[in-house]
């Protein structure tokens, strides 16, 4: 998973020795907390008679307007405290103190964010004293403070410095404290820039258009004739019918039912793994416990969550080869790569562009909190490199990706671009071309092995390296790393194309052997490194780790291919019953939208907290189901008002010959969740554009 290993490694570096009660930095922070038990109370007692001298002005006759305004508001505040006025007491009541649980990894005391920002004392006819919430940084501890909004961070630093100098037993030379200006917030809303306004206008126009055409479809359309294609594309009524319809497809040999379940389980795995990543960066009371969690077998589902991505690549390659080869067979080998690319771009590019706008511009509009001052954490990466994401080359172009989970779209698009070459080769040369693809898979696996060996890259948390981002780029984000699973799925799709409609008669021994081997490959891929991941065990050699990483990139897709084959041929048993249940179909159709928006929901919910959190599997599971529910709602909303309506452009580009096949056209136009036009012919739900 993107950034998961990096986050876990950083947590390990910070808290490795702290877990053994030997971290000198943690002990230092604990000593600071003993000397200053309640910083807010100490502050008010010292500055109850504040003057210009406290602002560092040796010449009282030359203060600036900002200095005088800060001094005036501080005086009003101290007078309010002396007379026990409610607003003044709220300002000091909202302060944090040195956090408890320092030795278990807690570095935050968030105070009371809303109490501070809710202060608005009217002074005179035109003056209002507002609260300003800032973090006081003390040896990596972050403590909430609340002062008049007219006082800058520089003013506050002067106050804090004078306060600490007057305290006994406090060494100011070894213990630094400062107010973080980047963390300061007031109740004043920032003015929207032009891009924010543009984003809101686009969403408003799309919502209005969808509402009007839904009304037209519901009340004014003749049901016998049906609504026009334009109305159907924008009608929420029509799109919801498509999204939520349950199709019994057993009578259609061209539909692989189990793909719905595999796709849904994979996207759930992706969202669940990302839930842990966001929880690890939350203000946890017990960060030290993260280390003990990383060596639990359960943590392997998160640390090795990238196999969910390989499942999507297998499905992507499978559907491309099956569907396009089937079409080429009907058209005597004709293939239009440019039209393929155009269909793909029309379905993906607008959604990605809107996602960049919403992540970077609307996150602070809809939410806020003590840890939300800077908005989306990837704002800087998007300002510098949003165009790399729009060009689908971000996995090679930059280390910090705008919307980092969209690396999957880049890899998938790059593999899709080369697919016409492979498809033409398979159509013309058949099994000889398939043999060449097998050789290509082996060469790519050898490239991955050599990259890890030569650069001495390690993916184990305890072997974390200083150039972790570079290793992540070479071993996880690179297209050639994921090309092998995609090509295996591609070849499997070719195999199914050659044997479509054929029933394989397998004896029980072969079936059981296939299932045992596939399950063994699945569990080895996920859990094989669990014993070696223990902090006290001998680290794997780079040769052993390279072999594991390379071979599991082949084992996992092979296991997925067997599961699909067994389910198709009637040897899936309970697995097929579970994966092929029609209830997966709506979520499967919504999977691309869920992939795009799930990190938005998770970041908003994890960063707008007002109090400390507690890290445990149970607490993360609670947050996961909360975020999963909101992800479904947001994905449904964005699908209805933005993603599905854009299908009209894809309809306009379709060859006119489809107009003679009304049933096929209906199926294709309604399957708006598909990100490839070919997917619409083969299966109602494509591999999501999701990934880690």
Please characterize this protein's 3D structure.
This protein is mainly α and 692 residues long. Helices cover 61% and strands 5% of the residues. The chain has helices at 4-15, 24-35, 39-46, 65-82, 86-93, 113-117, 153-165, 194-219, 229-234, 236-244, 258-280, 289-294, 300-303, 306-330, 337-366, 379-391, 394-397, 407-429, 431-455, 468-477, 479-498, 508-527, 542-568, 574-579, 585-589, 591-607, 617-643, 647-653, 662-670, 677-682, and strands at residues 108-109, 120-123, 127-138, 141-148, 177-185. Strands 1, 2, 3, 4 and 5 form a 5-stranded mixed β-sheet that branches. Helix 15 (337-366) runs parallel beside helix 26.
Number of strands: 5
**What spatial form do the alpha-carbon principal axes imply?**
globular
Structural class: mainly alpha
Helix content: 55-70%
Query: Mind summarizing the main beta sheet?
Result: 5 strands, mixed
Oligomer: single chain
Rg over CA atoms: 29 Å
Helical segment count: 30
On the 0-100 scale, what is the average pLDDT?
82
Strand content: 5-15%
Distance between the termini: 5 Å
List segments where confidence is low: pLDDT < 50 over at least 5 consecutive residues. 4-21, 657-692
Q: What's the quick description here?
A:
With 692 residues, the chain is mainly alpha-helical. It has helices spanning 4-15, 24-35, 39-46, 65-82, 86-93, 113-117, 153-165, 194-219, 229-234, 236-244, 258-280, 289-294, 300-303, 306-330, 337-366, 379-391, 394-397, 407-429, 431-455, 468-477, 479-498, 508-527, 542-568, 574-579, 585-589, 591-607, 617-643, 647-653, 662-670, 677-682; strands at residues 108-109, 120-123, 127-138, 141-148, 177-185.
């Amino acid at each position: 998973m993107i950034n998961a290993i990096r986050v876990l490694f950083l947590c390990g570096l910070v808290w490795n020795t702290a877990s053994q009660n030997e971290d000198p930095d943690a002990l230092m922070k604990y000593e600071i907390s003993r000397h200053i038990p309640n910083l807010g109370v100490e502050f008010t007692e010292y500055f109850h008679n504040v003057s210009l001298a406290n602002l560092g002005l040796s010449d009282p006759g030359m203060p600036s307007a900002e200095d005088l305004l800060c001094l005036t508001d501080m005086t009003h505040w101290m007078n309010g405290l002396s007379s026990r006025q409610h607003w003044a007491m709220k300002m000091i009541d909202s302060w944090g103190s040195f956090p408890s649980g320092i030795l278990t990894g807690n570095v935050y005391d968030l105070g009371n964010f809303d109490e501070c920002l809710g202060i608005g004392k009217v002074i005179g006819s035109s003056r209002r004293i507002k609260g300003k919430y800032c973090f006081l940084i003390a040896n990596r501890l972050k403590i909430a403070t609340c002062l008049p909004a007219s006082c800058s961070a520089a003013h506050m630093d002067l106050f804090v410095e004078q306060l600490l100098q007057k305290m006994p037993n406090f060494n100011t030379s070894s213990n630094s404290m400062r107010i973080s200006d980047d963390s300061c917030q007031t109740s004043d809303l920032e003015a929207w820039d032009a891009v924010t306004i543009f984003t809101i206008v686009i969403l408003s126009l799309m919502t209005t258009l969808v509402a009007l055409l839904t009304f037209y479809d519901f009340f004014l359309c003749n049901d016998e004739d049906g609504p026009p294609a334009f109305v159907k594309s924008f009608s929420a009524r029509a799109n919801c019918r498509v999204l939520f319809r349950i199709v019994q497809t057993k009578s259609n040999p061209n539909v692989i039912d189990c793909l719905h379940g595999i796709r849904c389980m994979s996207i759930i795995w992706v969202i669940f793994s990302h839930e842990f990543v966001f929880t690890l960066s939350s203000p946890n009371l017990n960060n030290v416990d993260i280390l003990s969690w990383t060596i639990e077998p359960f943590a392997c589902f998160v640390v090795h969550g990238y196999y969910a991505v390989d499942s999507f690549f297998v499905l992507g390659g499978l559907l491309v080869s099956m569907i396009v080869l089937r079409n080429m067979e009907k058209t005597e080998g004709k293939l239009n790569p440019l039209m393929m690319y155009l269909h793909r771009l029309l379905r993906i590019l607008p959604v990605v562009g809107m996602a960049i706008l919403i992540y970077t511009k609307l996150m602070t509009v809809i939410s806020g909190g003590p840890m939300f001052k800077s908005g989306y954490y990837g704002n800087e990466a998007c300002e510098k490199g949003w165009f790399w994401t729009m060009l689908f080359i971000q996995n090679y172009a930059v280390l910090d990706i705008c919307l980092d989970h969209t690396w999957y779209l880049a890899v998938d698009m790059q593999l899709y671009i080369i697919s016409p070459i492979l498809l033409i080769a398979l159509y013309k040369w058949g099994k000889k071309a398939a043999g060449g693809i097998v050789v290509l898979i082996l060469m790519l696996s050898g490239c991955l092995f050599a990259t890890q060996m030569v650069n001495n890259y390690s993916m184990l948390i305890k072997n974390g390296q200083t150039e972790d981002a570079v290793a992540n780029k070479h071993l996880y984000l690179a297209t050639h790393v994921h090309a092998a699973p995609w090509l295996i799925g591609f070849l499997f799709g070719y195999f199914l194309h050659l044997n479509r409609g054929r029933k394989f008669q397998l004896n029980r021994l072969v079936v059981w052997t296939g299932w045992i081997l596939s399950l063994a490959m699945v569990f080895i891929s996920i859990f094989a490194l669990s014993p070696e991941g223990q902090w006290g065990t001998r680290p794997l050699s780079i040769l052993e780790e390279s072999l594991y990483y390379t071979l599991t990139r082949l084992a996992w897709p092979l296991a997925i291919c067997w599961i699909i084959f067994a389910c198709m041929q009637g040897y899936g048993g309970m697995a097929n019953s579970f994966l092929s249940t029609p209830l997966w179909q709506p979520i499967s159709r919504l999977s691309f939208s869920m992939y795009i928006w799930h990190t938005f929901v998770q970041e908003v919910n994890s960063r707008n907290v007002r109090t400390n959190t507690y890290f445990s599997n149970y607490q993360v599971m609670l947050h996961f189901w909360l975020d999963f529910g909101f992800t479904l709602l947001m994905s449904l909303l964005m699908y209805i008002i933005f993603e599905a309506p854009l299908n009209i452009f894809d309809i306009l580009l379709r060859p006119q010959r489809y107009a003679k096949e009304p049933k096929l056209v209906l199926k294709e136009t309604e399957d708006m969740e598909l990100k490839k036009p070919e997917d619409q012919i083969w299966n109602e739900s494509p591999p999501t554009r999701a990934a880690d």
